Known about the structure:
Two copies of one chain form a homodimer. Chain A has ten helices and eleven strands. By secondary structure, chain A is of the alpha/beta class. Chain A is globular and about 50 Å long. The first copy, chain A, has two domains: 83 residues, Leucine Dehydrogenase, chain A, domain 1 (Rossmann fold), CATH 3.40.50.10860; 134 residues, 3-Layer(aba) Sandwich (Rossmann fold). In chain A, strand 9 and strand 10 form a beta hairpin. In chain A, the strands form three sheets. In chain A, strands 1-11-8-7-5-6 form a six-stranded parallel sheet. Chain A has a three-stranded parallel sheet with strand order 3-2-4, with helices on one face. A two-stranded antiparallel ribbon of chain A has the order 9-10. At the A-B interface, helix 5, helix 7 and strand 6 of A face helix 5, helix 7 and strand 6 of B.
Amino acid sequence: MLLLDGKKLADELKLEIKQSVDALVAAGKPAPHLAAILVGNDGGSLTYVGHKVKACEQVGFQSTLLHFDENITEEFLLNEVKKLNENPSIHGFIVQLPLPKHIDADKVLMSVDPAKDVDGFHPVNVGKVTLGLPAFVSATPLGITKILERYGIETSGKHCVVIGRSNIVGRPMSILMSGQSKTGNATVTVCHSRTKNLAEVTRQADIIIAALGKPEFLTADMVKDGAVVIDVGTTRVTDPTTKAGWRLKGDVKFDEVSQKCAAITPVPGGVGPMTVVSLLLNTLQAAQE
Amino acid sequence: MLLLDGKKLADELKLEIKQSVDALVAAGKPAPHLAAILVGNDGGSLTYVGHKVKACEQVGFQSTLLHFDENITEEFLLNEVKKLNENPSIHGFIVQLPLPKHIDADKVLMSVDPAKDVDGFHPVNVGKVTLGLPAFVSATPLGITKILERYGIETSGKHCVVIGRSNIVGRPMSILMSGQSKTGNATVTVCHSRTKNLAEVTRQADIIIAALGKPEFLTADMVKDGAVVIDVGTTRVTDPTTKAGWRLKGDVKFDEVSQKCAAITPVPGGVGPMTVVSLLLNTLQAAQE
Lengths: 289, 289
């Protein structure tokens, strides 16, 4: 069984990004500059944004964090987005989700300049990805394709089953895996909450991408021998034995599935670290254009 | 076996559209106005645009055909698109494909105002459809969902196999069928030229959407008893017994598959007529907004 080590791969990619940044700076150009807008004090969001800022530092990016009170108006936020759109020193920026309920997240995401939308959430980027055109691919799907690519996992002609149809993982993964690219050309089945006989479907899969957000959902009996398993789940489950009182659980019952499959991503240390590094890759691309 | 009569359904929908147009006009508003840009003299394109103009007349729409020489420049065409974008009397317009090779079709489609993009080809509309947001759904996929809806074909929890991953049919159909809508919620498998053991996959399907453009490709042995079969193929094959010297063939071997399935669209008279009427539905929607 091959462990698809996202942490190690992310570290390698960060070194490569650092080299590209050094080359940009040596050529007299500014280092890539990523800005993040954070509204309110959601614990998860604070952690995620913190990881992103730290990752920027590691690769030599400039970073700016705009942290606003949860009571700001939608109008205020739209104006901040506008300022980032118009600021030539910012190459890319993200608006950390979720936003407070009184703010229309779709409206805010629509207002981001697609050329700076390094999260790949704007409909223009989603549409281009769907059409197979060059665009910012959102971070988690991009991270998964990098894992497949760097570990040389063959996808062409394989049967890939994606569990989940969310806009940030399941949907784009199903499009990318069935598209015409070097980590595409798979026959792809999209499964979700309405799917009947899910285990019958997953047992046919050469590649399983589990992105439904249910801890340890995918068990060994649902996986055929020699399958490749990508675990996108990151649910915090209570664990009094840890310092934090919780730990991350994936959507895959790792102990039993790992005995059976050809390759698998662990949680933590699989898809998660690749998500942050993918945001860096998109920002580097934005700065190079 | 239920014949899914797209011609009859299209006629019914045209009557309903006509009633909506009459209501608009009675309320003192202008009738919906569809414009079409046609470049060159491709035989198929002339026929398709002719059908669209005729359909406009049938439902009381205004229509404008801009027919340009195949030697026009890209710049000229982009300027014509700009004029239509800015013309308040035009509610929606289409640029008939294919365009001559010296013109960048993606660039032209990107220049169409998404609010007038009744073909649903602009990345913003494609992206919104992918994200499950309200948008113009392109005509053939919209026509197929109307057939499923009006004939009361249950899709939720069914296994739908889409053969083909083109941007105008296969890709959007796979997204719509697996999305959260009344003609969605299916488990969807996308098959294409790289798919291995295609017949094994299609034999599992409750619903098959054949959109690969190979006449009579889908044979009875590839279909399970009681499946619903949607035939999107429209290939002209030589036939000296007809006046035109050719006739349309679908992707499904109708004579044998129709014996086995629960419901099927014929070719011609199935998806084709629904495609034209879907363009009218989108234009009506554009005029009502």
